[in-house]
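Q: What residues go here?
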Protein backbone atom coordinates (compact mmCIF):
# COMPACT_ATOMS: atom_id res chain seq x y z
CA UNK A 1 0.00 0.00 0.00
CA UNK A 2 1.83 3.12 -1.19
CA UNK A 3 1.04 6.62 0.19
CA UNK A 4 0.17 7.80 -3.35
CA UNK A 5 -2.39 5.05 -3.70
CA UNK A 6 -3.76 5.92 -0.28
CA UNK A 7 -4.48 9.48 -1.45
CA UNK A 8 -5.95 8.20 -4.70
CA UNK A 9 -8.23 5.81 -2.80
CA UNK A 10 -9.61 8.62 -0.63
CA UNK A 11 -10.17 10.90 -3.63
CA UNK A 12 -11.75 8.11 -5.73
CA UNK A 13 -14.03 7.08 -2.87
CA UNK A 14 -15.35 10.60 -2.38
CA UNK A 15 -15.96 10.94 -6.14
CA UNK A 16 -17.71 7.55 -6.05
CA UNK A 17 -20.12 8.74 -3.37
CA UNK A 18 -21.23 11.58 -5.65
CA UNK A 19 -22.11 9.03 -8.33
CA UNK A 20 -24.24 6.76 -6.16
CA UNK A 21 -27.68 8.39 -6.52
CA UNK A 22 -27.42 8.29 -10.34
CA UNK A 23 -26.04 4.73 -10.20
CA UNK A 24 -28.98 3.56 -8.08
CA UNK A 25 -31.37 5.20 -10.49
CA UNK A 26 -29.58 3.34 -13.33
CA UNK A 27 -29.89 0.11 -11.34
CA UNK A 28 -33.66 0.56 -11.19
CA UNK A 29 -33.86 1.22 -14.95
CA UNK A 30 -31.75 -1.83 -15.81
CA UNK A 31 -33.71 -3.96 -13.38
CA UNK A 32 -37.05 -2.91 -14.87
CA UNK A 33 -35.86 -3.71 -18.40
CA UNK A 34 -33.84 -6.97 -18.18
CA UNK A 35 -32.46 -8.76 -21.25
CA UNK A 36 -31.76 -12.46 -21.62
CA UNK A 37 -28.37 -13.91 -22.58
CA UNK A 38 -27.51 -13.07 -26.19
CA UNK A 39 -30.01 -10.20 -26.33
CA UNK A 40 -28.24 -7.65 -24.08
CA UNK A 41 -27.37 -4.99 -26.70
CA UNK A 42 -29.81 -2.45 -25.20
CA UNK A 43 -28.44 -3.05 -21.68
CA UNK A 44 -24.86 -2.54 -22.92
CA UNK A 45 -25.90 0.67 -24.72
CA UNK A 46 -27.66 2.01 -21.59
CA UNK A 47 -24.59 1.34 -19.40
CA UNK A 48 -22.15 2.80 -21.95
CA UNK A 49 -24.32 5.92 -22.19
CA UNK A 50 -24.48 6.25 -18.41
CA UNK A 51 -20.70 5.94 -18.14
CA UNK A 52 -20.39 8.53 -20.91
CA UNK A 53 -17.47 7.16 -22.89
CA UNK A 54 -17.12 5.33 -26.19
CA UNK A 55 -17.11 1.50 -25.96
CA UNK A 56 -15.68 -0.90 -28.53
CA UNK A 57 -18.04 -3.73 -29.41
CA UNK A 58 -16.94 -7.29 -28.55
CA UNK A 59 -18.58 -10.72 -28.25
CA UNK A 60 -21.83 -9.69 -29.93
CA UNK A 61 -23.61 -7.36 -27.49
CA UNK A 62 -20.55 -6.85 -25.26
CA UNK A 63 -18.27 -3.84 -25.02
CA UNK A 64 -14.97 -2.70 -23.59
CA UNK A 65 -13.36 0.67 -22.89
CA UNK A 66 -10.20 1.91 -21.19
CA UNK A 67 -9.83 4.71 -18.64
CA UNK A 68 -6.56 6.11 -17.24
CA UNK A 69 -3.15 5.62 -18.85
CA UNK A 70 -3.60 4.34 -22.40
CA UNK A 71 -0.28 2.47 -22.35
CA UNK A 72 1.25 -0.15 -20.08
CA UNK A 73 -0.25 -2.67 -17.67
CA UNK A 74 -3.96 -2.55 -17.04
CA UNK A 75 -6.50 -3.99 -14.61
CA UNK A 76 -9.91 -5.02 -15.97
CA UNK A 77 -13.23 -5.00 -14.13
CA UNK A 78 -16.10 -7.14 -15.37
CA UNK A 79 -19.84 -6.37 -15.33
CA UNK A 80 -22.31 -9.01 -16.58
CA UNK A 81 -25.12 -7.82 -18.84
CA UNK A 82 -27.64 -10.66 -18.83
CA UNK A 83 -30.73 -11.51 -16.79
CA UNK A 84 -32.44 -14.86 -16.20
CA UNK A 85 -35.65 -16.23 -17.68
CA UNK A 86 -38.59 -16.19 -15.27
CA UNK A 87 -41.22 -14.01 -13.67
CA UNK A 88 -40.13 -11.64 -10.93
CA UNK A 89 -41.79 -11.94 -7.52
CA UNK A 90 -39.93 -9.26 -5.54
CA UNK A 91 -42.78 -6.77 -5.40
CA UNK A 92 -40.27 -3.95 -6.03
CA UNK A 93 -41.58 -0.72 -7.56
CA UNK A 94 -39.00 -1.22 -10.34
CA UNK A 95 -39.78 -4.93 -10.87
CA UNK A 96 -39.59 -6.30 -14.41
CA UNK A 97 -42.63 -7.54 -16.24
CA UNK A 98 -42.81 -11.19 -17.36
CA UNK A 99 -40.10 -13.05 -19.22
CA UNK A 100 -36.78 -11.99 -17.71
CA UNK A 101 -35.51 -11.10 -14.24
CA UNK A 102 -32.27 -9.66 -12.84
CA UNK A 103 -32.24 -12.42 -10.21
CA UNK A 104 -28.44 -12.79 -10.19
CA UNK A 105 -27.66 -9.20 -9.18
CA UNK A 106 -26.11 -8.21 -12.51
CA UNK A 107 -28.10 -4.95 -12.42
CA UNK A 108 -26.29 -4.13 -9.15
CA UNK A 109 -22.89 -5.02 -10.65
CA UNK A 110 -23.49 -2.82 -13.72
CA UNK A 111 -24.60 0.15 -11.59
CA UNK A 112 -21.51 -0.29 -9.38
CA UNK A 113 -19.23 -0.48 -12.43
CA UNK A 114 -20.82 2.69 -13.81
CA UNK A 115 -20.29 4.64 -10.57
CA UNK A 116 -16.71 3.35 -10.28
CA UNK A 117 -15.88 4.25 -13.90
CA UNK A 118 -17.42 7.75 -13.78
CA UNK A 119 -15.56 8.49 -10.54
CA UNK A 120 -12.34 7.01 -12.03
CA UNK A 121 -12.47 9.47 -14.91
CA UNK A 122 -11.95 12.30 -12.35
CA UNK A 123 -8.91 10.84 -10.57
CA UNK A 124 -5.35 10.06 -11.67
CA UNK A 125 -5.21 6.32 -12.14
CA UNK A 126 -1.71 4.78 -12.00
CA UNK A 127 -2.63 1.95 -14.42
CA UNK A 128 -5.22 1.48 -17.14
CA UNK A 129 -8.72 0.51 -15.99
CA UNK A 130 -10.37 -1.66 -18.65
CA UNK A 131 -14.15 -1.92 -18.34
CA UNK A 132 -15.67 -5.14 -19.61
CA UNK A 133 -19.40 -5.21 -20.34
CA UNK A 134 -19.81 -8.95 -20.70
CA UNK A 135 -22.75 -10.68 -22.37
CA UNK A 136 -23.86 -14.32 -21.88
CA UNK A 137 -22.68 -15.15 -18.37
CA UNK A 138 -25.74 -17.31 -17.69
CA UNK A 139 -25.73 -19.29 -20.94
CA UNK A 140 -23.34 -20.87 -23.43
CA UNK A 141 -21.57 -19.86 -25.56
CA UNK A 142 -19.76 -17.98 -22.79
CA UNK A 143 -19.36 -14.22 -23.23
CA UNK A 144 -16.18 -14.25 -21.12
CA UNK A 145 -14.61 -16.88 -23.34
CA UNK A 146 -15.52 -14.81 -26.41
CA UNK A 147 -14.01 -11.63 -24.92
CA UNK A 148 -10.81 -13.48 -23.97
CA UNK A 149 -10.58 -15.11 -27.41
CA UNK A 150 -11.13 -11.73 -29.11
CA UNK A 151 -7.78 -10.72 -27.60
CA UNK A 152 -9.00 -7.70 -25.60
CA UNK A 153 -6.99 -8.66 -22.50
CA UNK A 154 -3.71 -9.30 -24.31
CA UNK A 155 -4.02 -6.25 -26.59
CA UNK A 156 -4.72 -3.98 -23.58
CA UNK A 157 -1.97 -5.44 -21.39
CA UNK A 158 -4.51 -6.58 -18.79
CA UNK A 159 -2.60 -8.35 -15.98
CA UNK A 160 -5.47 -8.78 -13.52
CA UNK A 161 -9.23 -9.12 -14.07
CA UNK A 162 -11.44 -8.18 -11.12
CA UNK A 163 -14.97 -9.44 -10.57
CA UNK A 164 -17.38 -8.78 -7.70
CA UNK A 165 -20.59 -10.74 -7.32
CA UNK A 166 -23.36 -10.26 -4.77
CA UNK A 167 -23.96 -13.33 -2.61
CA UNK A 168 -26.79 -14.31 -0.27
CA UNK A 169 -24.44 -16.20 2.10
CA UNK A 170 -22.11 -13.28 2.88
CA UNK A 171 -23.12 -10.77 5.59
CA UNK A 172 -23.93 -7.17 4.51
CA UNK A 173 -20.94 -4.85 4.48
CA UNK A 174 -18.58 -7.80 4.13
CA UNK A 175 -16.69 -9.31 1.21
CA UNK A 176 -15.50 -12.90 0.83
CA UNK A 177 -12.64 -13.77 -1.48
CA UNK A 178 -10.12 -16.46 -0.57
CA UNK A 179 -6.89 -17.43 -2.34
CA UNK A 180 -6.75 -20.31 -4.80
CA UNK A 181 -9.67 -22.21 -6.34
CA UNK A 182 -13.06 -20.68 -5.46
CA UNK A 183 -15.31 -22.11 -8.19
CA UNK A 184 -15.21 -25.43 -10.00
CA UNK A 185 -14.51 -26.48 -13.55
CA UNK A 186 -17.86 -27.48 -15.03
CA UNK A 187 -18.39 -30.03 -17.80
CA UNK A 188 -21.51 -31.65 -19.17
CA UNK A 189 -21.47 -35.41 -19.68
CA UNK A 190 -23.78 -36.58 -22.45
CA UNK A 191 -24.13 -40.38 -22.38
CA UNK A 192 -26.01 -42.29 -25.07
CA UNK A 193 -26.62 -46.05 -24.90
CA UNK A 194 -27.97 -47.88 -27.98
CA UNK A 195 -29.20 -51.43 -28.44
CA UNK A 196 -32.10 -53.30 -29.98
CA UNK A 197 -35.65 -52.75 -28.79
CA UNK A 198 -38.40 -55.32 -28.60
CA UNK A 199 -41.29 -56.76 -26.54
CA UNK A 200 -41.04 -56.78 -22.74
CA UNK A 201 -42.21 -60.41 -22.71
CA UNK A 202 -39.33 -61.51 -24.98
CA UNK A 203 -36.26 -59.67 -23.61
CA UNK A 204 -34.00 -62.53 -24.75
CA UNK A 205 -34.74 -61.52 -28.34
CA UNK A 206 -33.76 -57.86 -27.71
CA UNK A 207 -30.72 -56.04 -26.36
CA UNK A 208 -32.30 -53.01 -24.75
CA UNK A 209 -30.23 -50.30 -23.04
CA UNK A 210 -32.42 -49.79 -19.92
CA UNK A 211 -30.38 -51.83 -17.42
CA UNK A 212 -27.06 -50.62 -18.85
CA UNK A 213 -28.07 -46.96 -18.53
CA UNK A 214 -29.34 -47.54 -14.98
CA UNK A 215 -26.03 -49.19 -14.02
CA UNK A 216 -24.09 -46.30 -15.56
CA UNK A 217 -26.19 -43.76 -13.61
CA UNK A 218 -25.43 -45.54 -10.34
CA UNK A 219 -21.76 -46.01 -11.24
CA UNK A 220 -21.01 -42.35 -11.97
CA UNK A 221 -20.42 -41.16 -8.36
CA UNK A 222 -18.17 -44.19 -7.88
CA UNK A 223 -15.92 -42.92 -10.70
CA UNK A 224 -15.28 -39.77 -8.65
CA UNK A 225 -14.68 -41.78 -5.48
CA UNK A 226 -12.14 -44.03 -7.22
CA UNK A 227 -10.31 -41.17 -8.97
CA UNK A 228 -10.26 -38.05 -6.81
CA UNK A 229 -8.82 -37.88 -3.28
CA UNK A 230 -11.61 -37.56 -0.70
CA UNK A 231 -9.74 -34.47 0.52
CA UNK A 232 -10.45 -32.70 -2.79
CA UNK A 233 -13.93 -31.53 -3.82
CA UNK A 234 -15.50 -33.09 -6.94
CA UNK A 235 -18.98 -34.27 -7.83
CA UNK A 236 -21.05 -35.78 -10.64
CA UNK A 237 -24.81 -35.16 -10.54
CA UNK A 238 -27.24 -36.73 -13.00
CA UNK A 239 -29.74 -34.11 -14.10
CA UNK A 240 -31.62 -35.99 -16.79
CA UNK A 241 -32.19 -39.65 -17.62
CA UNK A 242 -34.44 -40.30 -20.58
CA UNK A 243 -35.30 -43.73 -21.88
CA UNK A 244 -38.36 -45.57 -23.18
CA UNK A 245 -41.58 -44.60 -24.90
CA UNK A 246 -43.84 -44.39 -21.86
CA UNK A 247 -45.05 -47.96 -22.34
CA UNK A 248 -44.47 -50.75 -19.79
CA UNK A 249 -44.12 -53.52 -22.37
CA UNK A 250 -42.02 -51.86 -25.08
CA UNK A 251 -38.25 -52.24 -24.77
CA UNK A 252 -36.55 -49.13 -26.15
CA UNK A 253 -33.47 -49.10 -28.36
CA UNK A 254 -31.86 -45.88 -27.08
CA UNK A 255 -31.45 -43.93 -23.86
CA UNK A 256 -29.73 -40.66 -22.97
CA UNK A 257 -28.30 -39.47 -19.65
CA UNK A 258 -27.10 -35.93 -18.94
CA UNK A 259 -24.89 -35.17 -15.96
CA UNK A 260 -22.80 -32.28 -14.70
CA UNK A 261 -19.20 -32.88 -13.61
CA UNK A 262 -17.60 -30.40 -11.19
CA UNK A 263 -13.91 -30.58 -10.32
CA UNK A 264 -11.39 -28.29 -8.61
CA UNK A 265 -8.17 -29.89 -9.91
CA UNK A 266 -6.97 -29.75 -13.51
CA UNK A 267 -5.79 -33.38 -13.39
CA UNK A 268 -8.97 -34.53 -11.59
CA UNK A 269 -11.05 -33.13 -14.43
CA UNK A 270 -9.18 -35.23 -17.01
CA UNK A 271 -9.01 -38.40 -14.89
CA UNK A 272 -12.72 -38.43 -14.01
CA UNK A 273 -13.68 -37.92 -17.67
CA UNK A 274 -11.47 -40.90 -18.62
CA UNK A 275 -12.94 -43.08 -15.86
CA UNK A 276 -16.49 -42.20 -16.96
CA UNK A 277 -15.63 -43.13 -20.56
CA UNK A 278 -14.40 -46.56 -19.43
CA UNK A 279 -17.53 -47.04 -17.27
CA UNK A 280 -19.85 -46.16 -20.16
CA UNK A 281 -18.12 -48.28 -22.79
CA UNK A 282 -17.48 -51.37 -20.66
CA UNK A 283 -20.87 -51.39 -18.92
CA UNK A 284 -22.57 -51.11 -22.31
CA UNK A 285 -20.43 -53.99 -23.66
CA UNK A 286 -21.29 -56.18 -20.66
CA UNK A 287 -24.99 -55.65 -21.40
CA UNK A 288 -24.63 -56.30 -25.13
CA UNK A 289 -25.30 -52.71 -26.17
CA UNK A 290 -23.12 -49.79 -27.20
CA UNK A 291 -22.35 -46.72 -25.09
CA UNK A 292 -20.93 -43.37 -26.05
CA UNK A 293 -19.74 -40.45 -23.93
CA UNK A 294 -19.55 -36.89 -25.24
CA UNK A 295 -17.97 -34.31 -22.95
CA UNK A 296 -19.18 -30.75 -23.48
CA UNK A 297 -16.41 -28.73 -21.86
CA UNK A 298 -17.56 -25.75 -19.79
CA UNK A 299 -15.70 -23.28 -17.58
CA UNK A 300 -12.24 -23.98 -16.18
CA UNK A 301 -11.55 -23.71 -12.43
CA UNK A 302 -11.82 -20.16 -11.11
CA UNK A 303 -8.67 -19.35 -9.13
CA UNK A 304 -8.04 -16.24 -7.11
CA UNK A 305 -4.45 -14.98 -7.28
CA UNK A 306 -3.20 -15.23 -3.65
CA UNK A 307 -1.14 -11.99 -3.83
CA UNK A 308 -4.04 -10.00 -5.28
CA UNK A 309 -6.41 -11.42 -2.64
CA UNK A 310 -4.06 -10.41 0.15
CA UNK A 311 -3.45 -6.90 -1.22
CA UNK A 312 -7.12 -6.23 -2.02
CA UNK A 313 -8.21 -7.38 1.45
CA UNK A 314 -6.02 -4.64 2.93
CA UNK A 315 -7.84 -2.15 0.68
CA UNK A 316 -11.26 -3.56 1.54
CA UNK A 317 -10.57 -2.77 5.20
CA UNK A 318 -9.24 0.66 4.23
CA UNK A 319 -12.42 1.33 2.22
CA UNK A 320 -14.66 0.39 5.14
CA UNK A 321 -15.72 -3.16 4.27
CA UNK A 322 -15.34 -6.25 6.43
CA UNK A 323 -13.62 -9.47 5.39
CA UNK A 324 -15.84 -12.54 5.49
CA UNK A 325 -14.67 -16.14 5.52
CA UNK A 326 -13.67 -17.22 1.98
CA UNK A 327 -16.46 -18.50 -0.26
CA UNK A 328 -15.74 -21.72 -2.10
CA UNK A 329 -18.23 -23.80 -3.98
CA UNK A 330 -18.56 -26.24 -6.85
CA UNK A 331 -20.63 -23.62 -8.61
CA UNK A 332 -19.08 -22.17 -11.75
CA UNK A 333 -18.78 -18.74 -13.35
CA UNK A 334 -17.42 -18.12 -16.82
CA UNK A 335 -15.26 -15.37 -15.26
CA UNK A 336 -12.70 -18.20 -15.01
CA UNK A 337 -12.04 -17.98 -18.78
CA UNK A 338 -10.24 -14.65 -18.11
CA UNK A 339 -7.93 -16.65 -15.84
CA UNK A 340 -6.41 -18.34 -18.89
CA UNK A 341 -4.89 -14.99 -19.92
CA UNK A 342 -4.49 -12.97 -16.71
CA UNK A 343 -4.55 -13.27 -12.92
CA UNK A 344 -8.10 -13.20 -11.54
CA UNK A 345 -9.83 -11.98 -8.40
CA UNK A 346 -13.47 -12.83 -7.79
CA UNK A 347 -14.98 -11.59 -4.58
CA UNK A 348 -18.45 -12.14 -3.18
CA UNK A 349 -20.25 -9.16 -1.68
CA UNK A 350 -22.79 -9.50 1.15
CA UNK A 351 -26.48 -8.79 0.63
CA UNK A 352 -28.30 -9.52 3.92
CA UNK A 353 -27.65 -8.36 7.50
CA UNK A 354 -28.22 -11.93 8.70
CA UNK A 355 -27.61 -14.42 5.85
CA UNK A 356 -29.47 -17.73 5.83
CA UNK A 357 -32.86 -17.78 7.61
CA UNK A 358 -34.76 -18.73 4.44
CA UNK A 359 -33.96 -15.47 2.62
CA UNK A 360 -34.10 -15.60 -1.21
CA UNK A 361 -30.91 -16.92 -2.80
CA UNK A 362 -29.26 -16.03 -6.12
CA UNK A 363 -31.50 -16.99 -9.09
CA UNK A 364 -34.59 -17.01 -6.83
CA UNK A 365 -37.39 -14.95 -8.41
CA UNK A 366 -37.60 -13.06 -5.08
CA UNK A 367 -33.87 -12.24 -4.91
CA UNK A 368 -33.41 -8.46 -4.65
CA UNK A 369 -30.25 -6.96 -3.10
CA UNK A 370 -30.92 -3.59 -1.38
CA UNK A 371 -29.77 -0.47 -3.29
CA UNK A 372 -26.99 0.17 -0.73
CA UNK A 373 -25.20 -2.91 -2.04
CA UNK A 374 -24.34 -0.97 -5.22
CA UNK A 375 -21.84 1.01 -3.15
CA UNK A 376 -20.39 -2.14 -1.53
CA UNK A 377 -19.86 -3.77 -4.93
CA UNK A 378 -18.23 -0.59 -6.28
CA UNK A 379 -15.91 -0.42 -3.24
CA UNK A 380 -15.08 -4.06 -3.69
CA UNK A 381 -14.15 -3.46 -7.35
CA UNK A 382 -12.05 -0.48 -6.26
CA UNK A 383 -10.25 -2.61 -3.66
CA UNK A 384 -9.57 -5.19 -6.36
CA UNK A 385 -8.07 -2.56 -8.68
CA UNK A 386 -5.93 -1.02 -5.92
CA UNK A 387 -4.74 -4.43 -4.71
CA UNK A 388 -3.85 -5.42 -8.27
CA UNK A 389 -1.87 -2.20 -8.73
CA UNK A 390 0.03 -2.94 -5.50
CA UNK A 391 0.87 -6.45 -6.69
CA UNK A 392 1.93 -5.32 -10.18
CA UNK A 393 4.24 -2.68 -8.66
CA UNK A 394 5.76 -5.25 -6.28
CA UNK A 395 6.31 -7.74 -9.11
CA UNK A 396 7.90 -5.04 -11.32
CA UNK A 397 10.32 -4.02 -8.58
CA UNK A 398 11.21 -7.67 -7.92
CA UNK A 399 12.16 -8.20 -11.58
ZN1 LIG B 1 -24.35 -13.91 -11.76
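A:
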Amino acid sequence: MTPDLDMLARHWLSELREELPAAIELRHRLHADPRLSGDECDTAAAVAQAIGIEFETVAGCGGWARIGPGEGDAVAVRGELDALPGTERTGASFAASEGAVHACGHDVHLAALTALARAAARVNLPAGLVLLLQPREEKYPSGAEDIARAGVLTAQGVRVVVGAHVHHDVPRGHVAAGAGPVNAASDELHITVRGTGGHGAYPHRAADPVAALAQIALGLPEMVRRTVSPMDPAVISVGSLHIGHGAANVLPSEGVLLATLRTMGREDRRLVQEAVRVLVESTARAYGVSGELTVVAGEPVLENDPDVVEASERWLTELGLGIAVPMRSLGSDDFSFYGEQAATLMSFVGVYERPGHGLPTLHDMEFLPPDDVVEDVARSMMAGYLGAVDVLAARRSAE
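A: Context that may help when evaluating the design: The first strand starts at residue 56 and ends at 58. The mean pLDDT is 96.
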